[in-house]
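I'll show a typical protein example:
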Amino acid sequence: MSIRVLVSDHPHRTLALATESHVLLFKHAHTGPNLGVSRSLTASSTVPKDRKNEAPRCMVEFLQKSAVELKGYRTLTTAKGTLGLITLGDDVFVCVATGSREVATVRPGETVQQIVAVEFYCLNRSDYDHAGGYGAGYRDGYREPNPYSNTLFEDEHSYESSETIAEHPFMALKKILSSGSFYYSYNFDLTRRLQDRADADTAVDIASLDEGLLWNSYMINPLLSFRSRLTDEERGALDHSSLLTSVIRGYVGTLTVPQSANPIRSVKSNYPATLTLISRLSSRRAGTRFNARGVDDDGNVANFVETETIFWSPTGICFSYVQVRGSIPIFWESSSTLIPGQQKIQITRSPEATQLSFDRHFDNLIHRYGIVHVVNLLSETKPGEVELTERYNLHMTRNAKMKLEIEDKPEGARSDLIRKTEFDFHEISRVAGGYDGAKQIKPLISESAESFLYFLTQEIEDEVNDAANKGQIHKKIYRPVMVMQQTGIFRTNCLDCLDRTNLVQGIISQTALELFLEHRGEIAHSSNLSVFWMRHSSLWADNGDALSKIYAGTGALKSSFTRHGKMSLGGLMADARKSATRLYVNHFEDKGRQNTTDLLLGRLVGQEEVELFDPVSDWVQERLRSRANDFESSEVIRVWVGTYNLNGKMLRDASELRKWLDVRKGEGFEIVVVGFQEIVELSPQQIMNTDPARRTVWEQAVKATINETSSEKADEQYILLRSGQLVGAALMVFVKSSVLSKIKNVEGAIKKTGVSGLAGNKGAVAIRMEIQGSSVCFVTAHLAAGFGNYDERNRDYQTIITGLRFQRDRKIEDHEVVIWLGDFNYRIGTRPEYARDLIDTYRQANGQGPKAVNALHDLYKDDQLNIQMVAGQTFPFYQEGAIKFLPTYKFDLGNDNYDTSEKARIPAWTDRILYKIDPTKGTDMRQTEYTSVMNLRFSDHRPVYSTFNVQVRVVDEQKKGEILKELYAKRYRQLREDIEDDESDSDADDLVGYQSIAPGLPPASSDRRKWWLDGDKPVASKVVPPEEGMKLNPDRNGNPWREGGEDDWVLVEELETKERNKKEAKSKPEPPAPRKAKIPPSVSIVSNDTNEERNKTPPPKPPAPRGSSSRAATLTQSWNMAGAWPQSRNLISKNPLKSRIAIQKQRSPSSSTHKTISTVLTANQLKRRQHKQRQHRKPTRESNLTKSRTRPRNRFANSIATKSTDIHKRKQQSSSTAHETNTSLLDQITLLHNKWCLSIFYKR
């Protein structure tokens, strides 16, 4: 089905996947939808992202094509379907499959498509539209390979060279999805084997797929959640449109078997048979060869593949046989060397800590497939593989299912649910002179093969009666009937589960087919089976190559023998080339491929799913957070942490460790963490290699000691959870067996810092885990030595904190609780004599009293670690308990004397324990003890230990899910009731999440519905007073939600009284001027200044420029020319906020009315005007003008004041002619002023 990918950038960017009848629309959260009327009941709405750590959000709508206007959209490409949504920072991308091809036909009507091209389109930015090259060079939705990859061609229609296109941020992800290892089907559930879907409908229910085999579950889950909220009709339309695509990873292939080579006789038609191989790679513990090994805490193993062989014949017979492969289900790791075929193998957990996960793995297999027959192909002589085989056998014998009786077992059947066969592939092939020796496994597995049988269906003819035709036969149909079921599987493994495993699995598949043909009696009558088996071998060779490319980066070894049945010279040379290529890929490409795989599966640190919110979901999540106490609780885990620098010495008497490893205090400890430094002498030969022998000895000594002390209290025994070593540094974590089920995802990592990161004499070992819902990380470190090398120690810390990485690129700082322990080598920067005197003072006081406390306090002031932490140079935000013990370095061996050698090193607290907590995630920790053990004297250091109470989060996922369902049901029930009670004729989806805030008010508006436009009516409101004689209060606050203030309604009488009082208040006369003020007759001045300031006589100001219509400027001219300016200026206060000058026109004797001109000017305004007037005066006139201002000229002043009054009256009468009138009068005033100045000048 063809799907068009459309985009519209205006008004907001919108991406559309359009089929012939429907459209799936995507929008980023910060853009508001403008899509017209929705027909969906639960269309997701956008919520602005206003919290810093909130996952990116977007909106999705599924609409009929007729409801969306697509004229403004442009076409990007055509697609086969969408794989889901993925984020990059705050950007949201839609992944679509743009190219695919049909590679298999399992049965008629059941086809499989292989993805060959994908694209990622950003929802909120157009920058990436051309990154990586969309459009050009594509045909049928995917880019054709360029045979001249090193040549850059320009567009034939362009005369200028094209600009360099930036690489798409998901280019690595596009590469892996387009590699040809991903498959999907429109017709059937590709994640389930034929036996599990025998009775299922042909329609694919994308919500019921096996998530363990689904590879785009992280990306498709938000869309599946959106799908679950659609109505049944909409859900069916979405499924029918094939817009949502579910993919598996592995291999799918079909080869046709011509009629001449068909082993089934009585073929009634000329149609060929088909032979299909489907390999489904699990996504639970996915990764590359040296990054994913062994088992995890949930029982999932690396490189787990379910392979199904399907043979369909035109006679209606369908045969299916399933087998699995997977890594050895114990905790182990390996590292590649520069020699092909050699690996360093390390078992990381003790048998006690492994058994639980081992049992979970086989429990899952038994529950899913039935009886399990293990075929182990590891070598019995090769180092590393021998240890794995021994541990494998140990766990097999401890598994209870090995001897579990089967009820109603047939006579002669074996009674165990787990069987095991050891088959040293390399040794047998060497003895047999080639890989033909692998066929010797057939007798070893024949008994189980016959008991497991296979899945078989047969089509039968059935008659359907037509009720409308009075029971007469209407038509005949053929329906499959299950004849036989497979009751067990073979689980095959080698070291990598690639080359040897694929060859042996091909033999097992052939054995099952031969058994099927033998049961039908076809084997003796088939004369041309060689063509059939050749096609079978070819499929298995292609299968081995495909799976090997995913896990190791190259095709499978021995594929030449698998394909042709013999090993040729060309096959040997091909295997040598593949081995060399693997060496390169494993060293330089595996880390990047692992990160890309984790990105696809959503397992990188901090990676979150895209959230599609609808109003209902927002309400539910808010209520769920408020009910967190119903499904969340806390649990206190007691942890003992200790560190000891052994100085390369071995303990003669293990009982001495009891002085330090005393775990009997209080109620005991659930977790014991022990860190050692210098467990071997750091010689030049040792620092480049890690010898695990010494670590093993100390592991046994520590385990025996802590179990001995716990046995005295009849307590549980401790088991070794995991250990790690870097030359001389070692870290061991022991836990009680009862706590083991609460711990998962245990990982280890190391980081070298010696000799610029090349040597392991200095560095760190870290172990991380998840305890219930909290993440915890323990780090033991041995930093650079030397008194003055604190800068180098700071750099070592930075190197460790930034360079040490766990799986999925997880860092130390990504954990909620981090505890550092070890020999940090920070010294005390003081004189040796002063330090020893303080220590002697402490010892003389027996460590008690103020003297001892003050001595340690004075010594701690010069501690380098404390100084560097305070300065922020190292261990930022870490804490350390109060140090109440003597320095732990450096002692003479066997006594308590500090260094008496020639070097006489200054005593120092080199051995420390620091910790940091992130309480924002619900985890807390409290340190209960921090001390040292001074009577353990076989090293030049003294051991230190600390105890903690860690409060971890416990989440009941089952209870949480129940509450979630309850809240959703409650919310939808409320909405339906509101919709039924609502009398307005509106779409149901417009009311979802938008209820009225008060009875009688309409629901709140949505993006598609506005209540004020309901029924195409204009906006109107009907307000009824609560009582008669009341009106709206004009003095009420404009914000109706603000508390206090005026009432909304008031009585008419009260309102009239308020208005009358306001008018009276406005009509009050102004108070008269003070009587004692000495001012001219025409001016009243009020000032707070002193008399001294009044005697100052600044120069007068010239008149304002002509044409000014400002009333203040006009009045200022009047004051200057009236002779009032010199005195008014003298009366201005120093404080401009307190000074005011009021000028009033006195009552004229001949006038019957009182005319008043008033204004208020600040002192700053008057000073500015005075400054401007000074700039226009001539120096020759300054003295004369200053003297003339001492005496007022009443004749000219009265004339000028009268003119100013006329200006004011005319301006009030007509605003249209005010400017012209003022201009003419100002000219007259200016003329009078000039005459007045000239008369004074000539008179003087």
